[in-house]
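Newbie here. four chains, one complex. Structure please?
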Amino acid sequence: MSTGFFGDISKIPFDPEAGPETLAFRHYNPDEIVMGKRMEDHLRFAVCWWHSFVWPGGDPFGGQTFDRPWFADRCSDPMEAAKLKADVAFEMFTALGAPFYTFHDADIRPEGESFAENTKNLQTIVDFLQAKQDKTGLKLLWGTANLFSHRRYMSGAATNPDPDVFAFAAATVKTCMDATHKLGGANYVLWGGREGYETLLNTDLKREDQQLGRFLNMVVEYKHKIGFPGAILIEPKPQEPTKHQYDHDVATVYGFLKRHGLENEVKVNIEQGHAILAGHSFEHEIATAAALGIFGSVDMNRNDYQSGWDTDQFPNDVPEVTRAYYEILKAGGFESGGTNFDAKLRRQSLDPHDLLFSHVGGMDICARGLKAAATMLEEGLLTEFVSRRYSGWEHDEPKAMLSGERTLEDIAARVDAEDINPEPRSGRQEWAENIVNRYV
Amino acid sequence: MSTGFFGDISKIPFDPEAGPETLAFRHYNPDEIVMGKRMEDHLRFAVCWWHSFVWPGGDPFGGQTFDRPWFADRCSDPMEAAKLKADVAFEMFTALGAPFYTFHDADIRPEGESFAENTKNLQTIVDFLQAKQDKTGLKLLWGTANLFSHRRYMSGAATNPDPDVFAFAAATVKTCMDATHKLGGANYVLWGGREGYETLLNTDLKREDQQLGRFLNMVVEYKHKIGFPGAILIEPKPQEPTKHQYDHDVATVYGFLKRHGLENEVKVNIEQGHAILAGHSFEHEIATAAALGIFGSVDMNRNDYQSGWDTDQFPNDVPEVTRAYYEILKAGGFESGGTNFDAKLRRQSLDPHDLLFSHVGGMDICARGLKAAATMLEEGLLTEFVSRRYSGWEHDEPKAMLSGERTLEDIAARVDAEDINPEPRSGRQEWAENIVNRYV
Amino acid sequence: MSTGFFGDISKIPFDPEAGPETLAFRHYNPDEIVMGKRMEDHLRFAVCWWHSFVWPGGDPFGGQTFDRPWFADRCSDPMEAAKLKADVAFEMFTALGAPFYTFHDADIRPEGESFAENTKNLQTIVDFLQAKQDKTGLKLLWGTANLFSHRRYMSGAATNPDPDVFAFAAATVKTCMDATHKLGGANYVLWGGREGYETLLNTDLKREDQQLGRFLNMVVEYKHKIGFPGAILIEPKPQEPTKHQYDHDVATVYGFLKRHGLENEVKVNIEQGHAILAGHSFEHEIATAAALGIFGSVDMNRNDYQSGWDTDQFPNDVPEVTRAYYEILKAGGFESGGTNFDAKLRRQSLDPHDLLFSHVGGMDICARGLKAAATMLEEGLLTEFVSRRYSGWEHDEPKAMLSGERTLEDIAARVDAEDINPEPRSGRQEWAENIVNRYV
Amino acid sequence: MSTGFFGDISKIPFDPEAGPETLAFRHYNPDEIVMGKRMEDHLRFAVCWWHSFVWPGGDPFGGQTFDRPWFADRCSDPMEAAKLKADVAFEMFTALGAPFYTFHDADIRPEGESFAENTKNLQTIVDFLQAKQDKTGLKLLWGTANLFSHRRYMSGAATNPDPDVFAFAAATVKTCMDATHKLGGANYVLWGGREGYETLLNTDLKREDQQLGRFLNMVVEYKHKIGFPGAILIEPKPQEPTKHQYDHDVATVYGFLKRHGLENEVKVNIEQGHAILAGHSFEHEIATAAALGIFGSVDMNRNDYQSGWDTDQFPNDVPEVTRAYYEILKAGGFESGGTNFDAKLRRQSLDPHDLLFSHVGGMDICARGLKAAATMLEEGLLTEFVSRRYSGWEHDEPKAMLSGERTLEDIAARVDAEDINPEPRSGRQEWAENIVNRYV
């Protein structure tokens, strides 16, 4: 029985000719084969709980704009509200045909007065979700713990100066890993929104690094203990809410993992908006993670290029999304990861149907990006150009330089003897950029 | 005999009461004792060759503004020009009383037609500088190779797709390390201005990382081979000239060093302007390097906070410089490193005396910053506050959590059993910030 | 009778030797004479209501951290809460010795269910504040209407597509002007946080400009109608909460005023943080407003230079504040305007005493800046240098060019005839920057 | 007879099926009718002289990379070089089939030792170009004077502290207006790259504003004097090379024009990269200019979103270009203006064919954007949505509010009497954004 929140809703069809006010996919066709695989299995879409069902539409200068029946002003029993919210969420997931969803513990269960109450609430809801998963076939892409909203975490969770906060956070992560494992989650994510500092003047960087390193090692140990088969993912972000966050960007996270012996145990969940805030392109972060062997999953959204905060908008730029999937496909595509919409409506988009139009639009954009990227790879114009560009390194002497058989002195002697004086060759950037435009 | 470039110049005195048009230090007094050490030995000032003696005053929209007798339009013999430039440079170093200087090979020797000619020119000038060092007592803080200006490096030096460019770069670094060693340099620096990419579309990130890792390992091997006692330093920068540079910031460089087994062999030379361009504060980069054990030296300057390119201005903000030296002193001060002025005149500051006023001003700013930072540390208000803030971690159970004796399950059980529910405590940021203002 | 919120509090004294944990001014001495005027009369400090007494410590990723007895979770009667809040506020204003305060209507009165209820609530509180003003001698620097927090304003107030929102906003401004007038406010401020757009795709720029122009004209007409003697001030901001705000920066506001015939009726209230977000320095915005004849007042705070949102931190950089007051003093100082602390604690600064330490610190910083700026002006090194730099324009022919007596042809003929070929002269920027450092 | 620079070149054809290494337009078909007009007449493409034929490939960290036969190192006679450069330029313009070109005086003529020599050189080349125009049918979109590269302009042209520089600049502009008029130019452009300041400490803002206002008035007076029928255009830019430029963005230029009585005489030439550097989107600047009645022309390029300087890359983002032409078409399209490629190769794109591929790609991108924008307008989904959104203003009472017939008191009385309490309505931003994606 439907909640009626979205009116008379059913699964949104694929219909390339649909009109502008019709809910239909014009590009996302789950069963279409792309590079030998179904689009659904490539993209592995997930819809997140927090932006669509928890966020009230507030911003730093204004309060709630959304009017949802499960919000506290309209539903006084928190557990009933949580269940109603779950009902509506699954109606939306089902209508969209997304195979996965994602959540923080705080999104799905009422906040309790204690750790014990939080845990009990979580378990109740996990059972509720389990039944829904069984009924719908929907799966959990990843779960995570919200270690940033409650005031106890204001100075950090794992990196808090107070060891009791570290303990509370660790205990909470255990319960969230248990919940994720029970629900068959494909991954477990950690985003350290409060792991960082507001001012160096009151902060001990080195100690906090040790705390964070130990915390993550415990997570990995517990994963193995319980036999959780999914990947552990860290989500980098440079700042906001914290002035400086330790998991700044992919390269910084790599250094952290390597320092704590975790580079083979943990991967990254890369968000477009976080890449932009860190001064990188989305494709840069993906390509870097792939090159370093730690690419895991993506949070798909977009950041306004003129705003300096996390705008979490729905993706709508086909060329940019194409460049992202191009790097993902070059890296072999997703394993346990997927495309999670960490995207929220603008706070003026009040209507339930805005939730649907925005996700449909975003899924279509991703489908277009995936197909364009796949054709680029299949035609191979750029990959061949890149291979040719580095082909000089295939010869013996360059190989010897790279493998460690030559010293600075050896090379200097050869340059001197052979009067090596290389002429530069065109990098053909504009040509390459226009090649991409053949596909988008 | 003086070149007369600066008119009738002699060593600039310390005179706190000097008038606004008098060349005098009002704060920098080399022999003053700060925390038990002479100011000169704390600050280890160096003056760079390139900005003051090589740069013609051009910018992307305009050409030469400076009129120097050693420039090509006024001096047709390149080697004579190089020697005249060195004469003037040493006159300035001496007048300023800076104990050190720094250079790229391309700053001091004429560009040749071949590697062999470059090497010969370099050796000629190194002998010339050696004699000047002997006469004046000036020392070399570090030398480096310019692997970015010549068109052969347009697509990278160590990371070039063409192995011949890698070879040319490697050979050149060997000659610069030899020169630095001969001149008794305290460090050798590498700045990879072209090590990065303009577009991912024509770039193989993983291969270029291997090239860069091998290159740096060769440098370290050669250092040990020749017994060079100084430190090898990498200078991070996020971009400019390249769209993305691999040595993005301190944390990225750390990851790179760790990946290539070099974290105990190489340190960083941190520039204020590069920190700003990377979205960090100067003190952040210093503190991060110290926490990671790779702090080496600083390039002192300042970047305009409203400009998105490398403005390389002289430092003139006492509070900012104080925060930087506070982190440096907390980390134990410089070992082989020092304070190098990687700062240039605005192109409208045409007069020779502008060179002197700018350096005198910058040295005074640093002296004020050092003294303020030292007093902060000696009074210890902030360090004590920080210790108290983390003091909970001194107890046994927190120690056990941090040392690896506790698992997530252990901790969850304890949180549950003891109903741990920590209350946040004020971080007192505004108080701490105002404490700093007691000293500046 | 004290509320006890701040403990046993009394007026904070001027005591330059006070220790780090003592609440005392080390630099702000209201009666000290600077350039012939009392410091208090120069600085005209105001403390704002919203950050210190209304904001709960939330940010986009976390909720309330502050625990205040007048917050809804501790005080269930909204009008009693409003009065308790006012009691505490006046205790703080009095302790600080700030002569002024500032508010939005929504800060001081409970939100009603209708315009009529809002108005009634406002009037009740205005009477309450009037009594407090009479008792303490405190004055209102300016009042303003909050036309951005309530969801009705989500798409703009004056620029809303719905004329009913325009009407509601206009009616509200009338009540706030009445309140400000009754309380003897020195100015009335408008900040158009929602006057702008989220996307051009749903926006009619030209129509919204007409709406905003008409709205402001009504405000000015009403000011004259009621005989309000204060200035009408617009506060520029480039964005946040809105993606693009129409009152982008001082130069944009000037164009808007001129377009609507208001350039002699309305001035600007300039905030440091808004200047930074617009890509300007604080002193740039002040100097621009002064040059255009529309300088009114300042919102004193500081924005984190590494964050892209409005951080509203307390000022603590003496050199920056000095440059700001230097421009203010050059422009003749404040008339009706003043120095309003639009600054908030970091959300980790939980304690009541943090409110006091932060304001004391900020007031001391301003006092230092004012004194340094005054000495700079009195000694006149820079003003003389600037005069000399432009002195060529004092001759007859340049005067004729500037006054409109010469055409392009006249000038071209003279340049040709006299072979005019000017040599550039040094701008001495570094010297000038170091002159400032003599004073800070 | 061909110079051979581009090899065996002829007019590049329209061929949608052309392969990746073939020079052909896949989208730009000059004669195709779009909204009742030929594409060529809509887009009015122009190719600029400076980036492609003058710039040597240097950047702040490296020198010349391009090897062109007319550069000083290969051609010792400056006038011969200028003519050879013009021959090659016209070969490229013709091959591309662009109807227009653009230049600065300094791009086309050798720099002389005096104003008289500059003028003579310019006249010689103008005659040379005139003959080429006659032969090819190519036209001049606009001419302009380079008042920023020569060292005499380092402290400004019109805003220089030295009136002789003002005079030299004015005389130069006269000659460039004469040249533009003689060549039948459709517009005359002024870009004030040095009109601004490096530091307020040595600057008199108010005086410089007067100088700039007088200068522009002289330009307008001279236009009328000689009967030049084209538009006078100012090109806004926020900074670079200057720290702060007076013609910051469209809104700032509007205020300047209005202040000096020029808002009906001068329009703007808007560059994508300058918009981005000012913190705006390209479409924002166009829409703002249209709303203010000062839209003139565009400099088409793109700025790297991760770089803080003027990258002047070729456009290659269809959605962005579509949004730009959507605003242009809504404003009625170009009158005298056009689409000028102010875009340069990356300095690694060494080959002559890179010049062709880059322009062909850019022209195709613009053609795609124009066609998408035209279909958007013709289908009218968004324009209808916007009309409906503001339709409440069509009623009598809102009209009365807007027209000035209502006062704040009138409106407040009505809100009170009718208990007006508007409910917000969805802005449907995501729906609108996805509508755009139907077309690109």
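Moderator note: Chain A has 16 helices and twelve strands. The longest strand of chain A covers residues 139-144. Thread marked as resolved.
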